[in-house]
Amino acid sequence: MADDDVKVSGDGARSPSNATNGGAPKNGKKGIGIIVKEEVEAFRAEMPGKVKEQIESVKDPTKTQLYTSIFRHKRDETPRNRALGVLSNVFLHLHPAKINRDSVRYPYTWGMGGITFYLFIVLTFTGVLLMFYYHPTKVQAFRDVLYLEHDVPFGKILRNMHRWAAHLMVIAVELHMFRVFLTGSYKKPREFNWNVGVILLVLTLLLSFTGYLLPDDQLGFWAVTVGTNMARATPLLGNEGPFGSQLGMTPYNDVRFGLLGGSIVDANALLRAYIWHCIAIPIIASVFMIVHFWRVRKDGGISGPAPVMLASEADKPRRAQSAAGA
Amino acid sequence: MNWHQLWTIATTPDNIPITALLPLVLFYLWLAFRQAKGNDELIAQLEADPALAKTHHRKTWPFRPGWQKEVHVWPFLLRMEFLAAIIVTAILMVWSITMSAPLEEPANPNLTMNPAKAPWYFLGLQEMLVYFDPWIAGVVMPTLIIIGLMVIPYIDTNPLGSGYYTLKQRKFSIGTFCFGFLILWVSMIIIGTFIRGPGWQWFWPGQTWDHNRLIYEVNRDLPDLFGITSNLGKGIFGAIVVGGYFAIGGFVMTALFRRKMPRDWRRMSLLQYQIMMFLMLTMVALPIKMLLRLSLHIKYVWITPWFNV
User: Fold this and answer.
1) Best interface-test mutation with A: which of B18, B129, B160, B265 has the largest number of A CBs within 10 A?
2) Residue B172 binned pLDDT confidence (cut-offs 50, 70, 90)
């Protein structure tokens, strides 16, 4: 019955000829033929309008409910909308709406910070895919790498890309730090963010280093052996370090034992490296990255290219600058 | 000249990053110093002409009245980021297709690799193991590097040169950082990769790696040169030498610093200055110790029952 009502009122609005028809038989019974006829007539009367409406909306998809539900504002070629495009997008909103016209110039930033972050994303992506094929156990680890290299579709390129992206990330981080130093970008008010960056540099190196052991081959094994042997010599906390033995350090309770989960690089070390590499350090690094990016914005965006300052203005408050015109 | 040996080292998959790092560092160094030169010329021009300094937009890049000072992130920044992502992806793709990640034989604790090298970014520290005991090279030095980097913003009191490349306004800080990064970090990595062969011995580029080479080298300790034999004497002697290095070095450096950089001397607090000097002298001690080792074959300077320096 409700179905009927809707149809009737709809008809009434659209075509007067049907309105007279539709009102009368409401309480009487109708033959199936009449209902079909009515439906066909209504279809003919309404469809051209509906189709036209649909075509119109396809011409301008930004007016559709689907579009506006995703993007939260309509699309216009206006400055306001360009700003909204950035501000109302969760992935882009770390950017300001507008930036210094010279800061998009490549020679200033070298793009290394952004490239580092992009490489982190690439590494997360390829790393997760690698995790599907890898078991961090002495029996399987090396075989899994062989399996990846020879049998898994695109497995070889996946591993290669993870390895090279990791190397590239270390280079990009170091160059980023070099650029930030050379442009004096660690100076007030960005001192704290420089510190966050130093921690991220260390975390990047640790990420790379923990990943080194995972193929469980000679290269990784000896690199990690050499690396962790140094922990033995930690002052106070290592069994061979200065004052270590005086404090009761042995190969079975010192800081190296804690790192490896044993006194040699073995199954426990592999598992520990795996967990640090795949879970713990990425999470810690992500937290520091959030702070790093947030502070870049809070400290006034990227540092420049700023107008040069003269030595005569150095010890005065930065008043002359605004007069000079940014 | 064994070109094959050099080629083998340079094209070992894990060494490619270092082969790439060298031209990259040189390129960006050139890029930075070209901009620094431009800015320094501009600064000199503005300092000579105060009237111009009041009206100039103070960048080497052009700016005309009527131009917008700011541009929209969409599209002007985002297109750059997109482009960078595409280029990096393309490089990675080509690199991953053409070159395979290294995979040696399965880990075998009974078969030592020779040379057993750390990942390339730690080769600087591994190189330090030649000159210092593991507790210094492996623990104290990395810690001091991290601490040293972290205190930079708090000991650099120079307000100039924030947000633009310059050499003239920050000679000391840029000189120090370049010394640390280029000489102590990058070149040590290059030595560790290209020069250190089996037994961590020194092979010049192009020299064949000889696994059987032996070097007869007698390393002495500094107290031995002075004929000190008792343990107590060695301990006291070493403490005096190391303490003397910091005392005399600090004195000389302070005398120089006060004369050459009076502005910074005035701006810095005592604590800031002391931290800077300590890190500075420690950093300079590194090449000094290396030189002592390479020229006079001196192993330790300070010998105690608990640690040796």
Assistant:
1) B160
2) very high
